[in-house]
Design brief:
Length: about 325
């Protein structure tokens, strides 16, 4: 949509803004099919404008989820206006400082930001089941065995096949390991909570020391450990094992149990496979080649995680062959 049309729409819904003062600037944002713009109304006042594809179901739920988060005092951008017919959302501008941009700071500084992020997502995970049931009608499909298996196949197709060009017979043999299917079934049997689904450093804004969740349109019932794995094994950021353990203890309020850590390990495998599949797809199919630079680091993390899971020897060997 041309910026002059966006300007006209903004003026229509915010008639007090001086049309001569409004400036609309595109914002580059990851691999999303949505378009983001910063609407600067004056030196002190700005909004974020989102243009989304109405054909994609999860995009249509963004406003409902944002209002749900606000109702439960979970920090997220406030919605100012939603034009569902045009697929336009005007929301609060929380600035450009995300958790990712703090990666060069000392651990003392980053630790506070990570703690704030974990405090917000813990509120989501701890919502009463009755509240979650009420919200589920507005959410995409929950994490079940089929979704975990889809993440695995997404990885084998777009990372192993498309990026590394591993011969199909070998990739198929590994992808059909009974132990991989069993992991999906095991995770699907555990009690679900509401999860962000893409809880990584670029989806957490930091403002005045507080963390705000963004890009939450994929929220759905799943496992808290999946969100934790998304943050602690984030391919965009380096965290040491000691730092991961410190953050886990912060989230749990004590040392996590063995069962909790075992589930986290399986979720980390799933999340890294999903991320690697996305990098291959976005980089090679959608033409967003900058995603490809994250593949080596994510593969290294996946090797470390899979090395600690029983029954995946063929998968471990395949990962060791990737260069």
């Amino acid at each position: 949509m041309r910026t002059d049309l966006l300007l006209r729409q903004t003026r229509l819904h915010f008639p007090r803004f001086d049309v001569d003062e409004i400036k609309i600037t595109p914002i580059e944002k990851g691999g999303s099919d949505r378009k983001f713009y910063r609407v600067r109304c004056s030196a002190e006042q700005s909004l974020i404008l989102v243009k989304y594809n109405r054909d994609r179901e999860e995009n249509r739920h963004y406003v409902e989820i944002a209002q749900f988060l606000e109702a439960h005092e979970i920090r997220a951008p406030r919605i100012y206006h939603h034009d569902a017919d045009e697929g336009l959302i005007w929301l609060e501008d929380l600035g450009e400082s995300d958790l990712f941009s703090s990666r060069g700071e000392s651990w003392l500084v980053r630790r506070a930001f990570y703690g704030a992020a974990l405090d917000e997502v813990r509120k989501l995970h701890q919502l009463a089941e009755s509240v979650c049931i009420e919200m589920r009608q507005h959410l995409p499909a929950e994490f079940n065995a089929a979704l975990y298996l889809w993440e695995q196949s997404y990885f084998f197709e777009n990372c192993i096949g498309r990026y590394f060009n591993i011969e199909q017979a070998k990739a198929t043999e590994v992808s059909q390991l009974p132990a991989l299917a069993k992991i999906g079934e095991t995770l699907a049997e555990l009690p679900r909570v509401l999860v962000h689904r893409d809880f990584q450093s670029q989806n957490i804004l930091i403002r005045n020391g507080q963390a705000y969740l963004i890009d939450f349109q994929g929220m759905r019932p799943g496992l808290a450990q999946y969100d934790l794995a998304s943050l602690l094994y984030d391919p965009y950021v380096d965290l040491t094992e000691a730092e991961r353990n410190e953050l886990l203890e912060h989230y749990c309020g004590e040392k996590p149990t063995g069962d909790f850590l075992s589930t986290l390990q399986l979720c980390a495998m799933q999340r890294l496979m999903q991320a690697l599949g996305a990098y291959g797809f976005l980089g090679l199919v959608k033409g967003h080649e900058h995603f490809l630079q994250h593949i080596p680091k994510a593969v290294n993390s996946l090797r470390e995680v899979v090395a600690q899971i029983d029954g995946l020897e063929l998968f471990k060997n395949l990962l060791l062959e990737l260069h």
